[in-house]
Model the fold of this input.
Amino acid sequence: MEYLSDRIKSLSVSQTLAMAQKSRELKAKGIDIISLSLGEPDFNTPDYVKEAAKKAIDDNYSKYPPVPGFYDLREAISNKFRVENGIKYAPEQIIVSAGGKHSLINVILSIVNPGDEVIILAPYWVSYYDQIILAGGNPVIVEATIDNDFKVSREQLEVVITRKTRLIIFNSPSNPTGMVYTREEMREIANVVKRHEGLFIISDEIYEHIIFKGEHVSMASFEDIYDRVITVNGVSKGYAMTGWRIGYIGAPQWIAKAVDKLQGQFTSGVCSIAQRAALAAISKDDGSRGKMRDAFLRRRDLICKLLKDVKGIKIRVPQGAFYVMMDISHYFGKSDGVILIKTSEDLTLYLLDKAQVALVGGEAFGAPGCIRISYATSDELLVEAVRRMKEALYKLH
Ligand code: PMP
Ligand code: GLU
Done:
């Protein structure tokens, strides 16, 4: 322990993954846990994608792939950006990595110097914070609460920008809130970026295909800030391919080059078979993406209806992704006679113990009054989970 680097000591464990691991361990002990902790589609990868991967093995895709990704995959991604997002990225501006998470750290390490400030919008996705720490940056948190529909305003951003601010990380549809920024709201944020020279914005669009209301808008489609945007995406969520580990960026050429160099010393090109599978996924729409979206929408309606009947929980109806952020601050200071609830972490552990429902406490998302539900599971399990939660919460006075 004493010889661990300061860098690793300053890093927290990913709470989404930690909670998922905890539920796996409890399940292995025979405890009937309903896990609504991990954010991943419960569907299988579409058949046409699996077939492409099998073919890639038979076709001997077994050598080192090019560091930035196979050229035909980068061409397909370039085409996807043009058709679906209205953004022009040449294949040379695209780098394929081992998941969106890897794409994000690559970009952060490439443009953030120790001491630089990086703005994240709370509630934010867990890994943003620690990836900034890993790069030696200082996370600057701009907070949105349920009363602002979990969205931050232009004014809130303006007041925290200093000469040291290098980057904003933006995510719509959002994990953990499910909120989707409108074109007008995004335009306002784009204006802030435009006004500050040397300020960049990562637009994490990994949930773009899981959207229930309105349109998905890509930050880089605002042409006047195109040079300051790094678009992060991947196949994990839209194609139910979390385990394949393929993410990518579209970025200004100099950032793509830097990420290529970094990846060349770190991972090399990422898994060749998974890249061939991703190429198939992106090149065709067999309807499964839409079917999965429809299933998420039905479940969103179900979970929101169920939660309406639970005392002390406030929510906003999510417009995308597959999460609901519950404001549970009503329960702070309440007790079942033995356990006193002081934090959302306390309530998460109480629900794990008494209701056997695994959730993720808001602290990890920079939202200490909230708890996140991932509703990417069956209707039956959602009904049962809320029934159990209700029973356990009822005992708190
Ligand atoms: N960004 C957000 C907002 C996410 O929720 C996730 C899912 N963990 C990722 C990025 C990364 O996804 P992956 O590494 O599986 O591509
Ligand atoms: N995006 C998912 C989540 O937030 C997967 C876990 C992770 O990568 O952190 O739960």
